[in-house]
Amino acid sequence: MSTASASASASATASAPRSRARRREDTEHRLAHDVDVWVASASADGVPYLVPLSFDWDGEALLAATPADSPTGRNLAATRVARLALGHTRDVTVIDADVEVLDIDALPPRRGDRFAARTGFDPRASATPYRWFRLVPRRVQAWREENELTGRALMRDGHWLA
To answer: How far is 119 from 28, CA to CA, in rounded Å?
Structure first.
């Protein structure tokens, strides 16, 4: 099959674009049920770093933990911003987040227990010094195919658009 034929065939079978409301529902479902998120950060001098981290979503923010002295831990603490990605390239949610840095003993025990139960990992029990990172979305985008690029913005300035 030629490249043009394959492209035309893929376009013919693509789903109709989802409404913004449906994309938000799908995004909130992913936040409630996925366990890992890609976290992109950069050092103060702009060196990028990308890692997967386990997270827990409480309806307002993602809670993640990583060693305080890891590149990601240092970057998040220094810049207080991150870009997150859920899903794969044909069904992606991209989140720009503000970062709150918390000492590992700063959370109420119930919150830490919830994180541990959801992710199967308890950073409070590690010999390595960890920190919590509360990732508060300020911009959220979601799309599947090219036909969903228009209208991909679901949140701006921390406020849902749908």
So the answer is: 17
Whole-number Cα distances in Å, 89 to 69, 70, 94, 111, 129: 30, 27, 10, 31, 34
CA–CA distance, 155 with 162 (Å, rounded to integer): 8
- What the chain holds in terms of domains, given with CATH numbers, is 20-160 (2.30.110.10)
Stretch (H or E) spanning 136: strand 130-143
d(CA 60, CA 105): 21
The span from the CA of 87 to the CA of 74, in Å, is 25
Q: Is the pLDDT of residue 10 over 60?
A: no
Tens digit of each residue's pLDDT (9 = 90 or more) over 99-154: 999 999 999 999 999 999 999 999 999 999 999 999 999 999 999 999 999 889 99
pLDDT for the residue 19: 92
